[in-house]
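We both want to read discrete structure tokens more fluently, so let's practise on a single case. Would you write everything just below, so we can both look at the same thing?
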Amino acid sequence: MRRRLVALGSVAAAFVLAGSTLAAGTISVKALGAFGVGDQVGYASGHTFDMQAAPGSLVLTVLVRVPPGGAFPWHYHTAGLSVTVTQGSLTVQDAGTCDTQAFAAGNGFVEEAGVIHQAFNTGSTLAVLYVTYMGIPAGSPPDVFEPASYDPC
């Protein structure tokens, strides 16, 4: 286990030192954002998130821009994902508890597949998100929307 951690640390150091004399050619790395995983609405306190990417599945990263007042209706994802908010804020509401939680620029969250929620931009500025889906099953859409009549809250 220790060798594995050392190897991961070495890879991370290589990215940090990119563009230095250790790298061949000019390599630049720009962090889009990072966040510590915390407790989130819809999950028990201290929940450990589980994501898997099976052979044949798809890992997809998308840039999402949500204007002020914009909303994603009730939906779930066919794969676990991570969301990094780089501008503005996004509020997420869980269908099971009806609780909401806001995530501002510089923060983010993770979700497991199948958890129904909605999200919206209640702020006055554009919200910009980077979303990475981990293991969308082959032939499946990344997002599944509930019927317009669905309203658990």
In short: Confidence is low (pLDDT under 50) at residues 1-21. The CA atoms of residues 65 and 128 lie 5 Å apart. The longest helix spans residues 2-16. The first strand starts at residue 58 and ends at 66.
